[in-house]
Amino acid sequence: MFHVIVDGANVVGSRPDGWWRDRPGAARRLAGKLSAALTAGPALLAQGLGREAADEDVRVHLVLEGAAAQVEDLPTHPLLDVVHAPADGDSAIAALAADLAVEPVLVVTADRGLRARVRSTGAGTVGPEMLLRTLPG
């Protein structure tokens, strides 16, 4: 299984599109785009992130924190897990990367400190723009 962990706050915050006025809406839009990408083909998503994987071998974990973590009516997909961080998203992402370390893990974030933390577990990293270019719409 190839795991993609998405730092929701970092990805949403990477583009100044007014997300700060509606954090729950921004979380919904990101979850919707991830769900649409998984519906179109998990292997295509992996390929857009520079990895090779079969459709059945991709799982995406969207980590949300703060107001975004309170959203309950997010778009869903069988291969999309939404992680509601109990505190800060970085700690949840680092813990998840460590838990999944027996399989390939790729973390989507631009946060340098978080990148260093997850690389110590063996995870790879890419920036938000690589993911955003891969997502529909």
Automatic annotation (TrEMBL):
Write down what this protein is called: NTP pyrophosphohydrolase
